[in-house]
Amino acid sequence: MKLNLKYGRGMVQADFRAPRRFAELKPKFIATLQKPENLVSQALAHPIGCHDFDYVFRGASSVLIVVPDEAQRVGGGVFLPIVLERLYRLGLSSRDITILVAGVWGARRNGIPQLLGARSSGHGHPRIVYHDARDAKSMEYIGRTRRNTPIFVNRLLLDFDRVLVCGGVNHHPFAGYDGGPSLVVPDCAGAETITRLSALTLDPFSPRLHPHCRGGVIEGNPLQEDMREAFRFLTIDFLLHTILNDCNQVIGAVGGEPLQAYAACCHRIDDIYRVPVAQLADLVLVSGGGYPHDRDYDTAHRALHHAIQAVRPGGVVILAAQCLEGAGAAQLATWLNEKDLSRLHEQLQRQYHPAGALAMATRQKAGHARIIFISNLDSALVTALGFHSAPTLSEALQLAYAWLPNIDNCYLLPNGSNTIPFLV
Questions:
Q1: For residue 377, is it within any domain?
Q2: What is the DSSP letter of 28?
Q3: Does the residue 279 lie in any domain?
Q4: Do 214 and 76 share a structural domain?
Q5: Cβ atoms of 419 and 23 closer than 8 Å
Q6: Looking at the domain assignment, is residue 6 inside a domain?
Q7: Is residue 264 part of a domain?
Q8: Which of 102, 276, 288, 316 has its CA at 20 to 30 Å from residue 306's CA atom?
Q9: Other residues' Cβ atoms within 10 Å of the Cβ of residue 326
Q10: How far, in Å, CA of 222 to CA of 241, rounded?
Q11: Same structural domain for residues 9 and 93?
């Protein structure tokens, strides 16, 4: 068979001898004939666990709308004009509304004003504030979680009569899911909170990442549980999230009481993106999903994180991810200099750093399976990652055949960034 994998803005190709047991793992394709605007309006009119949107926000003197800095990707151009129009109908003016753009360490200025739409004309645009985790003066301490994480959040979350959290939900490789509580903590949190919260990805007893810090896992996931606990320190009045399919089309929307609505969102995306497998494979072929999902190693690691869950110990993973922008994580090369996993773990426990956690996650994967990496990265960096470099897909396959002369089963993940295999 002819094998075609997305690679940057192009493809890599090779002839492939599929073993007797071969399966392509990919999300369900779900489409809808309903317009995204209708889906959002229905979610506001028929919420989960609370009164409808108009009831919740009627009589409000001021409203804070929290959106992700990637709001455009999750349908912000659809839901923001609708939400603003409803608030204006309820008697609020643009002066009464502020949009807080969330983002870990600092929100990117990704064209939020352009998403507000013509419907807000005549009212003016609400004030837009971009969260900055390093701006200590804008933070307020609101408590400490049971895991001893101090919670500092953007003061705006406490200054408004009503708070609405808008966005979308996807699987997160460590937190289980993004969106929902994570849009507030860590995305609107202070630097100390982000660092302490992120450190929960480390197993406190073994030199590895916590085994429950995985996509689609909530129960026992210390990162997700801490985020939810911190979320409950605040009064968030309503949540509105979109559901996207594999083509980034809005196919659903959920609104309501924040945690109940969020749980419904998580269930919906599990049904789309989690793929059951009956056994672990000898060989897994995975594409990062093409640009922008493979723009750098830090981003492409998400696909590898998913693929490694489908391969047996000692098996082989072939990862195709162009990584034109390099490692993507500042100081990754420095952290990779520490070859001993126990010492790396000790250093991260003393002073957590995201590049160090990426180095540890990478080392764990390289210890579980042999990884062949087709990329634009320097071969020295690929070696430092613990991987084997291959210039083409054909050569990667030849190397895999040499290591595994009797391949019994194989999985193909054509878009590894959003495909979550799980063993049943």
A1: yes
A2: P
A3: yes
A4: yes
A5: no
A6: yes
A7: no
A8: 102
A9: 17
A10: 23
A11: no
Quote the number of domains for the chain.
2
The answer to whether the pTM exceeds 0.85 is yes
Q: Which of the residues in the chain have pLDDT under 70?
A: 106, 117-122
CA distances from 211 to 87, 125, 203, 238, 364 (A): 44, 45, 7, 32, 11
Same structural domain, 40 and 21:
no
Enclosing H/E stretch for 360: helix 354-368
Closest CA to 97 of 47, 60, 148, 71: 60
The model's pLDDT over 29-41, given as tens digits with 9 standing for 90+, comes to 998 889 999 999 9
DSSP 36-52: HHHHHHHHHHS-BSS--
Structural domain harbouring 355: 2-26+274-423
Burial 395-404 (b: 16+ CB within 10 A, else e): ebbebbeeeb
Name residue, tokens 């897994």: 284
DSSP code string of 240-309: EEEEE-TTS-EEEEEEESHHHHHHHHHHHHHHHHEEEESS-EEEEEEE--STTTTSSHHHHHHHHHHHGG
Question: Is the four-CA dihedral 305, 316, 275, 414 of positive or negative sign?
Answer: positive
Which tens digits make up the pLDDT trace of 226-272? Answer: 999 999 999 999 999 999 999 889 999 999 999 999 999 999 999 99
One-letter amino acid of 236: I
Residues 174 and 322 in one domain: no
- Provide the CATH number for the domain around residue 316: 3.90.226.30
Residue 47 has which token pair? Answer: 């919420």
